[in-house]
Write a structure and sequence with these properties.
Layout (H helix, E strand, L loop, with lengths): L26 E9 L3 E6 L8 E5 L8 E16 L5 E11 L4 H12 L9 E5 L1
Antiparallel strand pairs: 1-2, 1-6, 2-5, 3-4, 3-6, 4-5
Length: 128
């Protein structure tokens, strides 16, 4: 006896012929290690392919500035275990700001002036 398949979709899917591409974006929570007028070094738990375009968002304490950027390098620097026992790789990446407008450059300069040389930088977000 074969069980009858019951459709669970709420909307009809339409098959697409040929090769139609799209983009899927995600937000990656990161820890800022250091930052300059030209880029930021971050730590995170998901791989970032070098060359990938992204938008880097500074934390609210620094003005929530969103800057266009590109991943320059990304390497595994360790691992950590989740409360559920899963082992995750920890990455460190270099992100270069690209195409900053004058007002963005000025806002970034102002944000960097607020930081003490040994102060905590907080967490930022990377939009891929």
């Amino acid at each position: 006896m074969v069980a009858e398949f019951q459709e669970r979709r709420r909307a009809t899917r339409i098959a697409v012929s040929g090769r139609l591409g799209g983009r899927a974006r995600t937000i990656l929570e990161v820890r800022i290690l250091d930052i300059s007028l030209s880029g930021v070094r971050i730590e995170h738990l998901s791989p970032l392919p070098p060359g990938s375009p992204c938008t880097f968002e500074l934390p609210p304490a620094m003005g929530s500035l969103a800057l266009l950027a590109r991943v320059v390098r990304s390497t595994v620097v360790g691992s950590e275990q989740t409360p559920g026992g899963k082992r995750l790789l920890r990455y460190e990446s270099g992100i270069m700001f690209v195409g900053l407008k004058e007002e963005q450059q000025a806002a970034l300069e102002k944000a960097l002036e607020k930081l003490a040389p040994s102060g905590g930088l907080g967490d930022g977000r990377l939009f891929l």
